[in-house]
């Protein structure tokens, strides 16, 4: 089992990642505003299905990869840190848009809503980097089965993401209206996210390697 302090730290990392603007958040907010909260919830279920694919792929493949190619661990860590810095720059760069500035989307049937949510998350580079570079930092053979730890962490991340995204889907319209009336808060949200992402990147590259 994963120690409670490590699990709490992982929960914090997962929470920061789900609060960071990305394809999932932008799609979910836009869909909820354009087609209503019901459409947003169906899309969210598709996003959860995509998380399950990422989780099992990471749980099954990462350990074998690290055993076969030890260098892969360090390479993925640096790639993850670079991508976090890229996300930080995207948040604070001049002319950047907040995810609460929704895009116009056509009305789609439930099946397509689920599929679009699934595909959006499956192809989401932010989630792929999370599972490939941040996720392994919390897995150690010293704590038991690597597969069991991976599933525990994955389900924890999915539960956090579902709870946060459900709140976003249910309140997307009100949040968008509030931010539209508060441009300073809209800008502040971008700079806070950028700072948090940069901090996560620094922590990722300075974290000592765990034995696999």
Chart the SSEs and their pairings.
Blueprint: H1 4-19, H2 23-35, H3 37-68, H4 71-92, H5 110-122, H6 125-134, H7 146-181, H8 183-206
What would you say this structure looks like, in words?
The protein is mainly α. The chain has one domain (4-206). Helices cover 78% and strands 0% of the residues. It is built from eight helices and no strands. The protein has helices spanning 4-19, 23-35, 37-68, 71-92, 110-122, 125-134, 146-181, 183-206. The longest helix is centred in the last third of the chain and has 36 residues, at 146-181. The radius of gyration is 18 Å and the shape is globular. The two termini are 16 Å apart. The model has no long low-confidence stretch (mean pLDDT 78).
Number of helices: 8
Number of distinct beta strands = 0
Main β sheet profile = none
Low-pLDDT residue intervals, each spanning 5 or more residues: none
Query: Fraction of residues in helices?
Result: over 70%
Structural class: mainly alpha
Q: How many domain modules?
A: 1
Rg on CA atoms, Å: 18 Å
Strand content: under 5%
First-to-last CA distance: 16 Å
Query: What would you call the shape?
Result: globular
Mean pLDDT, to the nearest integer, reads 78
Order of helices and strands: HHHHHHHH
């Amino acid at each position: 089992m994963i120690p409670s302090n490590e699990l709490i730290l992982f929960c914090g990392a997962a929470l920061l990642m789900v609060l960071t603007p990305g394809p999932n958040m932008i799609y979910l907010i836009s869909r909820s505003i354009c087609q209503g909260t019901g459409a947003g919830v169906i899309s969210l279920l598709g996003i959860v299905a995509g998380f399950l694919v990422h989780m099992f792929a990471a749980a099954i493949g990462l350990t074998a990869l690290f055993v076969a190619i030890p260098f892969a661990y360090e390479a993925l860590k640096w790639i993850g840190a670079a991508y976090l810095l890229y996300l930080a720059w995207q948040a604070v760069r001049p002319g950047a848009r907040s995810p609460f500035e929704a895009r116009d989307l056509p009305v789609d049937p439930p099946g397509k809503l689920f599929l679009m949510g699934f595909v959006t998350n499956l192809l989401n580079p932010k989630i792929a980097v999370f599972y490939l570079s941040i996720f392994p930092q919390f897995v150690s053979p010293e704590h038991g089965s690597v597969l069991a730890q991976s599933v525990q962490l994955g389900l924890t991340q999915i539960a956090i993401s579902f709870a946060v995204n459900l709140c976003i889907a249910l309140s997307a319209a009100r949040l968008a209206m509030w931010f539209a009336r508060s441009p300073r808060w809209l800008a502040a949200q971008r700079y806070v996210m950028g700072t948090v992402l940069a901090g996560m990147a620094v922590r990722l590259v300075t974290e000592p390697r765990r034995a696999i």
